[in-house]
Amino acid sequence: MSGIEITPAAQEQILDYFKGKDVKPIRIFLNEGG
Q: Taking the CA of residue 24 as centre, how many other CA atoms within 13 Å lie in the half-sphere pointing to its CB?
């Protein structure tokens, strides 16, 4: 559990953003301790 929560509305916006685009893997790097 990473502590990151994506609401259904946010997920919908993300999917909408990538519509018609080449979807490439997104890596989010989180630094420990902020």
A: 2
Q: Is the dihedral of CA 20, 21, 24, 29 positive or negative?
A: negative
Contact in structure between 2 and 30 (CB atoms under 8 Å): yes
- Rounded to 5°, angle at Cα 32 from 27 and 9: 50
Running along the chain, 34 residues long, what does each successive block of 10 average in pLDDT?
80 83 71 64
Q: Sign (positive/negative) of CA torsion 19, 25, 31, 8?
A: positive
Retrieve residue 5's tokens: 């929560």
